[in-house]
Automatic annotation (TrEMBL):
Residues 43-267 form the ABC transmembrane type-2 domain. InterPro entries: ABC2_TM, ABC2_TM_bact-type, ABC_2_transport, Nod_factor_ABC_transporter. It holds the Pfam family ABC2_membrane. PROSITE patterns: ABC_TM2. It comes from the Bacteria. The chain crosses the membrane at residues 45-67, 79-103, 129-152, 158-179, 186-206, 243-264. It is found in: Cell membrane; Membrane. PANTHER family: NODULATION PROTEIN J. This is Transport permease protein. It comes from Streptomyces macrosporus. Belongs to the ABC-2 integral membrane protein family. Its main location: membrane. It is a multi-pass membrane protein. Keywords: Antibiotic resistance, Cell membrane, Membrane, Transmembrane, Transmembrane helix, Transport.
Amino acid sequence: MNARTTETTGHGTYAPRPGAAPLPRMIAAQAALETRLLLRHGEQLLLTIVIPTLLLVLFGAVDIVDLSDADGGGGRVDFLAPGVLALAVLSTAFTGQAISTGFERRYGVLKRLGASPLPRWGLMTAKTCAVLVTEVLQVALLTSVAFALGWSPHGHPLAVALLLVAGTAAFSGLGLLMAGTLRAEATLAGANLVFVLLLVGGGVVVPLERFPAPVREVLEWLPISALSDGLRDVLRDGAGMPWGNLAVLAVWAVAGLAAAARFFRWE
């Protein structure tokens, strides 16, 4: 993290002038490192790339779940693509980040990085940037696959971007809260369990209308449901900004990030 620059002495030679690099450069370097580590990790790639892509292809091509009354008059992929995009955000911002950060905390990596010239908030900013870069790659891949399956999205890209950013903030806060308060093994089990439960009950591939009314009323307040339903309103139905879904995501983001900032333990 230290920048080793030089300066000219009176004799025309050069002497080192050690010191911390500019903060933006340190954050960019750490973000690039975090991104490379994430993309080199086989289990993370399985979680963030392979599983969402397989779900989109499998459920889009095979009539495993009856979507005839939930596709809004379009094809199966018009219902599935927004939900799988929401799942991709969940897998990266919550599950992947919680597991990787939890084990970094266990092995003392966070403690050592916290003692470097990069401030702790800068480290979290770098991790967030790595998550966003990974999500851009996920969205590019999944939209390409969805287009190949006959997807025809509607709506304004700005509304989609705001929903994805709000979802990222919400899931990042919850992931960091879990990673900073639980043991690494508990974080691993809990993050994967939450991923599976939200995959089934978050409106990703199974419409919320399939659940009993009391259960559905609870599920609609989950961040994954708000994100998948909001993306579906925009991309499938061509609606404007779904302010209700965005508000739910904003509440989860504020609560999760505030709790993570308050209770996160670095060692």
